[in-house]
Each structure stands twice: as structure tokens, then as C-alpha cells.
Fold:
Amino acid sequence: MIELPAWAWFYCAVVLFASYALRGSTGFGGFAAMPLLALVIPMKILVPVWTLLTISSSATLFGKDRRHVSLSMILKILPSCVLGILAGLWLFKTLDADWLTRGLGLLVSGYGLYALWQTLGSGKVQTPRAVATLASFLAGAVGTLFGTMASIFFAIYMDALRVTKEQFRGTLAALMMTLAVVRGIGYWAVGEFGRESLLLFAAALPFMFAGIFLGDRIHTGLSETTFRRTVCVVLILSGLPLMLR
Structure:
């Protein structure tokens, strides 16, 4: 197991519990934990762990919307997405942990700014259909390279195809679980599931389940817009120290 001071273990437990409580109660917020955890855990260890957590949490939350999953859409997405996964695996093996950390910080802060801009009302721009294939490729590549943020590009893909709200939620859940399984197999094939990653996953699992369990039973007084803006600000701020490491 990697050596961390007691405060860092406590910090990781709080981040995991809080982020999955947000996801359990609102369906959003789980991926916000990734840049916060990357402040104390090396990316090369954290990314495989996050993949296993994504599989576990997606499977836990999948049942509600499974009847709305569009299998035909998943089959259309997979070819370009798999190419993106292969590109992401190559980059993950090639780049060192510092570059991965800075790249994640840039991506997280950039997305936080973009999402905040959308909540202010001026960002309601309809996505052209032509970007769907590129978004699918980037979902595979970015999700594999950083272990998170693939949902952003899947959302862009489905927005470009103008899917219904029910199909959006159900298919996104299925896609995230499928992508996590495929890239998990890829990490295993290139030898990235080391003993430290598996031990950290085992240690994180109870806090993930506890957060989801609590999130299912709580209601927030914040409006959806206020909540989204709060998360956006957290993402922007959490990305800055990663870029400066």
C-alpha cells in the first residue's frame, strides 16, 4: 500500500463519501472526486482504482433506467470509442504521472468553466451532429487516459443525436459501465492493475457504497442550477493545483 499520512487517508475517505453521496442523491458529482484524490494519490495508481469504482458504482445505479437503454446507439458508439481506448492506453503507458496530473487539471478546470458558462444561460448551443463520432473517440481516449470525464463526451454525442431524456440517462449509465469494463481489461492487459491499486480499491469501496446509500435517502435544499454551479466552481478550483504540480 502507498504510504500516506493519516490526514491524507481521512481526506480521501471524506472526498469519496461526499462525492458518491452527491451522485446517489442527484445523479451528478461522482467524477468530481477524481481531481481531488489526485492531489494526494499518484495518477498511475489512481486511474485503475477509479475504473474499478466506476464499474461498481455504475452497476449499483444502473437498474433504475435499464429499460430505456438504446442498444443500437451503444453499437454505433463502440467502434470509434474502442479506437479511443487504444489511443488512451498508449498515451497512459507513454506519459509520466506528472504530465497526466497536469493534463487532468487542465481538462477539469476547462470543463468546469464550460459547464458554468452553460448554467448562466448563454451556453445553450445545439451541438452539430457531425461531432458525434469525434465525441465517441474522445470519450474512449480521455476516459482511459484520466479514468474519468468520459461522460462529458458521451453526453455531447447523445446531444448531437437528439436522443430523448429517458434514453439519455439509461444509455449513458450503460455506456459508462461498458467503457469502464473495456478499459479495465485494457489496464489489466498492459499490467497496470498492481497490488497497490487493488488494495486501494478495496479500501475505497465501503466509502463509495456508504455515500451512495446516504445519497439515496437525502434531499438537498439547493436548486438544480445552484447545485450545478457549485460543482462547477469546485471543479475549476480543484483543477488549478493539479496544473501547478
User: Anything to note?
Assistant: Residues 47 and 147 are 5 Å apart (CA to CA). The mean pLDDT is 77. DSSP finds ten helices and no strands in the chain. Residues 6-243 form one domain.
